[in-house]
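User: Here's a chain of 297 residues. Predict its fold as tokens.
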Amino acid sequence: MHSLTPIARLGAFVTFSCLCFTTSLGASGSSELLAGWHGDLRSAQQQALEEDKFLLVDLYADWCGWCRRLEQDVFADPQFKAYGDLFAKLKVDVEDGGEGSRLQSRYGASSLPTTLILSPNMVLVEAIRGYAPRETFMSHMKRSIAEYRKQEVLYDRLLAEADLEVLEPLARTLHQQGDGARAAQIYRKTLAERQQTPQERAWNLYRLADALRLDGDLKEARRALKDSRLRAIDARDSTLVEACDLLTIQLAQDGGLCDETTLALEAFLDTYPKSNHRRNAQRALAAIANNPPADCT
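Assistant: Prediction complete.
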């Protein structure tokens, strides 16, 4: 997934670099939506799930000239529109401080334009970076989807047949793609079958928690995270304890729990005065205070 921070390179997969709370449910900026495109993730993903379609996500910014060219030359083209009906389509501004910023960070979109192809469950199929003419762009999309379907078959066969020596590296690949369900399956197998030091077990529980979060199972994610944090304290692994506290914030955000997110952010700022993630936590806290989402609970 994801542009990995120093903590992430040690084995944490949750995105720490953009603690940004969703503050609007629609597309921001001056760019207008083409017909058939969504301006918020919730409605786009709902369509993808209900109609069993891939998600096509246009990540843009108002200052990005090539983003406008991509929309005019590709997305607005009649031949692309016909092909695009096979997708649930989403357009989001990466500078909105909300959904767009979070999607950019989650999938490591470091340049614009970036077009994401995602499964209905938000697994990364492909990130198409930059501009290309319509025919080239569509060919890239079709090849990527065909390759992803082959990979799904391979992954499921490996999950059924392979041993942990093969599966554990695969778990990292799946996790980076956002395939929380398959990654969690491997982490559970590792926890059940692999002899581990207390510290290794704590990290694997953390990885399981984040994989479950990606899969939308927030209840089980919280349970695994609580176990991980307790074990991290016992192992005196301060890096993992901090990672757990950051993931606690992310879980509250994902659940739309504004009060819980606020308390977790405040606790993080009190506990980690020298953290590299302090500035992002402060920004996230200010975003909730200044413009809370409409669906806050």
